[in-house]
Design brief:
72% of the residues lie in helices and 0% in strands. By secondary structure, it is mostly helical. The longest helix is centred in the N-terminal third of the chain and has 42 residues. The model has no long low-confidence stretch (mean pLDDT 87).
Length: 238
């Protein structure tokens, strides 16, 4: 009616509206898949606890449930063909499941391609690279994680510092301690000194002592950097 220029703004509005409609629908579909995965793992954990006297059977239950969960998550790849960022979110969930099951070789590619803004994914990748002795890439993974998640969790900084402090990279202990101290100081600033565990570990490293991560509980042990302590071990440690 008035030339092509009159159609530009309405066209852009329609395109944006359509994009956000599809995005919302895609997110709901992924949430449904994640919900099914959550149910699978909840049932598996309940069943594995009932096999407390048979650790092997309990481990098999969890392993089978993880395989089922991965199959469910991969169904979301079809959604990812139409919506940017969906596949990386699904990969992050797959990587997390495999890592916590200590299937590290399988987990690695998914952790690499997983959504960087999901802090556990990149932190797990950093922990895995620490285990492999690949310390340059470990630093890169943790630094990227911090870049996207500066104020989300003090454990991220503490885990990074722990890896730096315990890295057998041929450097002197003083150099490793100095680097760990810098990360802890940066984390304490980002957390506004509100993470008590981070503050305690910062003081410990300043005074030449070891870091104690037990205060973070299950969250710390999910990185598989230390074996979970029994109550007797904790008392003896004190």
């Amino acid at each position: 009616l008035g030339g092509w220029s009159y159609g530009v703004i309405p066209a852009l509005l329609v395109l944006l509206g359509g994009y956000f409609f599809l995005l919302r629908r895609s997110i709901k579909q992924v949430e449904t898949i994640s919900g099914r995965v959550g149910q699978i793992m909840t049932v598996a954990e309940r069943q594995s606890r009932s096999q407390a006297r048979n650790p092997r059977a309990a481990k098999q239950i969890i392993s089978r449930s993880i395989d089922r969960s991965i199959t469910e998550l991969r169904k979301g790849y079809l959604i990812g063909q139409w919506q940017w960022g969906i596949r990386s979110q699904l990969d992050a969930q797959i990587g997390n499941l495999l890592f916590m099951a200590e299937r590290f070789t399988e987990a690695k590619p998914y952790l690499k391609s997983g959504f960087a803004r999901q802090w556990t994914t990149r932190a797990m990748l950093g922990a895995l690279l620490f285990k492999e002795g690949n310390f340059p890439d470990m630093r890169e993974a943790f630094d990227e994680c911090i870049r996207y998640n500066k104020k989300k969790n003090g454990l991220l900084y503490a885990a990074y510092a722990w890896c730096l402090l315990n890295a057998k990279d041929g450097r002197k202990a003083e150099d490793r301690r100095s680097e760990a101290l810098e990360v802890l100081t940066r984390g304490n600033t980002a957390m506004d000194s509100k993470d008590d565990q981070l503050v305690r570990n910062l003081d410990a490293v300043r005074n030449g002592k070891k870091m104690n991560m037990t205060g973070y509980g299950q969250q710390w042990y999910m990185f598989r950097l230390e074996a979970m302590r029994t109550p007797k071990q904790q008392v003896r440690g004190r």
